[in-house]
Design goal:
A hairpin with a 3-residue loop joins strand 23 and strand 24. The strands form eight sheets. A six-stranded mixed sheet has the order 2-15-10-16-8-9. A five-stranded mixed sheet has the order 18-17-22-19-20, with helices on one face. Strands 4-3-7 form a three-stranded antiparallel sheet, with helices on one face. The chain folds into four domains: 2-47 and 501-518, no CATH class; 72-83 and 399-487, Outer membrane lipoprotein wza domain like (Outer membrane lipoprotein wza fold like); 85-99 and 186-245 and 295-396, Outer membrane lipoprotein wza fold like (Roll), CATH 3.10.560; 111-182, wza like domain (wza like fold). The longest helix is centred in the first third of the chain and has 45 residues, at 2-46. It has helices at 2-46, 153-166, 209-215, 236-240, 259-270, 279-284, 359-362, 372-376, 425-431, 462-466, 489-497, 514-518; strands at residues 72-73, 89-90, 111-117, 125-131, 137-140, 144-147, 176-182, 187-192, 198-201, 225-233, 324-327, 330-333, 340-341, 344-345, 363-371, 391-394, 401-405, 413-416, 444-449, 455-460, 472-473, 480-483, 499-501, 505-507. Helix content is 24%, strand content 21%. It is of the alpha+beta class.
């Protein structure tokens, strides 16, 4: 009886104790749960300028229903200068699709066969196979050397027949036949991303770009464009490929009649006043094929070209356009007004027109840009005719390495530029496994070489790029992408790792502290 009477009292005491402990445990549990959330919210509020979501700043993306279109930058203006294209390109023109059936003009290196009837032996045909030398001459018996470069086969026949008549070898109607055996000028060059780089012969006038690429062993489909470089000579010397007119060594040089020129030179030397002979006068007294002798004086006075206009002004006066000035050991021509003082030219002046020919004044080029994809698909609008001397270039894919580093990169390392397509900043981040748990996309540095020995670093907003708010960037060889972090990224990662989802949402608590928070587990399971 006594024990049974005491039982309700004990149960009441235990119930009362639990009624006091359990509310206190609940308040402690709620406080423990809300404390990290409040701290994370405070961190997020203090770092709103660096991230949009404080729980996981490494997650980037757009995830919106509205589509967006942004460009991809080839160049970063703030760190890279606009060097521009080395040459201007042009689109395919209608005249590029029309074949031109023109007579072949002989060139140095061509092998020809010359047949002359009744030449060395009466009533017989004399045959000679010759190679045109580098100067454009052809050597034949009794005729010496004949200038044939730049002439067609028919024109060469007329030239040889005329020489035979002039020398009295064949007086009446010489029968001459010239047959080109090899046409080295009727060729084109292919280089770049092709199967076989080399020089090929153009077999017919209607020889087109697809034929040339096929003969070169095919083309890499990764290329975007094919460039046809077509040069055009601006001077007769450049067009013939022979330079200045030259005479062969074995050709007889007739003596020049220098009497009148010598008299003019004597008149200039004996004329009163400070007047020196022009360089043309020096050159006229020199034998053919030699350079005119230069005076020993390091400085020469200004010389007027018209010899009949006397002048007595000193060399320090301002020369007129067209005058000659002795500068750096040679005679040069004055283009316009320039001050000449103490034997030199004024600073910033550009008075010389004959200081030497410029490359752009001798030869120029036209670069035809044809898209490769429609060309390979059979679009005839881009299948241009290949002309003699064309150079076809198929650009190879850009090769190089890109480096990804920093605590914000999931897999730092070295990545190759792809052979197909182009690598952008977002693509290399995806290849590197995205951002790490402590990565902050707003802190992304791009380091790029902007010279042979210079590099520049710029900070990019990777989050804005992924969201489509800022343009992406094409990466170049040797680019370094450094993804950074922040001091609050590590605590946020610890807080995120403290939460687990298993059959709902729960908060893991070490079992050694469970009784202190929630109280002792019940032991009476009978009631």
């Amino acid at each position: 009886m006594g024990d049974e009477a005491q039982t309700p009292g004990k149960e009441s005491a235990v119930a009362g104790f639990l009624g006091i402990v359990r509310p206190r445990a609940g308040r402690v549990a709620r406080a423990c749960l809300l404390a990290p959330l409040a701290g994370a919210a405070a961190l997020g509020a203090g770092c709103r300028s660096e991230l949009n979501t404080f729980m996981d700043p490494s997650v980037v993306g757009r995830w919106e229903y509205t589509p967006t279109t942004v460009p991809i930058l080839e160049r970063l203006d703030i760190i890279e200068e606009d060097e521009g294209d080395f040459v201007e390109t042009s689109e395919v023109l209608p005249e590029d699709l029309i074949p031109e059936a023109a007579a072949y003009e002989l060139a140095p290196g061509d092998q020809v066969r010359v047949e002359i009837f009744d030449f060395l032996t009466a009533g017989a045909l004399s045959t000679f196979e010759r190679v045109i030398d580098a100067r454009g001459f052809l050597s034949l018996p009794q005729l010496g050397v004949v200038q044939v470069a730049g002439q067609s086969a028919a024109q060469t026949e007329d030239t040889i027949a005329r020489l035979l008549k002039e020398k009295g070898i064949i007086v009446q109607d010489p029968l001459v036949t010239v047959v080109p055996l090899s046409q080295r000028d009727a060729t084109f060059t292919v280089f770049g991303a092709v199967g076989q780089v080399g020089r090929y012969v153009i077999p017919k006038p209607d020889y087109r770009l697809l034929d040339a690429l096929t003969e070169a062993g095919g083309v890499s489909p990764s290329a975007d464009y094919v460039y046809v470089i077509r040069q055009a000579a601006l001077t007769d010397a450049a067009q013939s490929g022979l330079g200045a007119p030259a005479q062969p060594r074995d050709a007889e040089q007739p003596p020049a009649d220098d009497g009148e020129t010598l008299e003019n030179l004597i008149d200039e030397l004996t004329e009163p006043g400070d007047r020196s002979p022009s360089p043309a006068a020096f050159a006229a007294t020199q034998p053919a094929g030699t350079e005119p002798a230069q005076p020993a004086q390091p400085e020469r006075p200004v010389i007027d070209l018209p010899p009949d206009e006397p002048t007595s002004r000193p060399a320090q006066d301002e020369p007129e356009a067209g005058q000659w000035v002795f500068l750096d050991g040679r005679w040069v021509r004055v283009r316009g007004e320039a001050q000449v003082a103490d034997g030199g030219l004024a600073e910033g002046a550009e008075p010389l027109v004959d200081a030497g020919p410029k490359a752009e004044d001798i030869v120029t080029q036209r670069v035809i840009k044809a898209p490769l994809a429609p060309l390979l698909q059979g679009n005839a609008a881009y299948n241009i005719v290949v002309r003699p001397g064309d150079a076809i270039r198929v650009p190879p894919p850009e090769a190089g390495l890109v480096y990804v580093t920093g605590p914000g990169a999931a897999r730092p390392g070295v990545y190759n530029l792809p052979t197909n397509g182009r690598l952008t900043l977002t693509k290399v981040i995806a290849a590197a496994g995205g951002l790490s748990a402590i990565g902050v996309p707003n802190r992304t540095d791009l380091t790029r070489m902007v010279g042979e020995d210079r590099q520049a670093t710029i900070r990019l907003n990777l989050r804005a790029i992924f969201e489509g708010a800022e343009p992406d960037v094409f990466l170049k060889p040797d680019d370094v992408v450094n993804i950074g972090t922040a001091w609050w990224a590590q605590p946020l990662a610890v807080i995120r790792n403290g939460f687990r989802t298993s059959y709902g949402f729960g908060f893991l608590l070490d079992r050694n502290f469970g009784n202190d928070v929630f109280g002792a587990p019940p032991t009476n399971f009978n009631r």
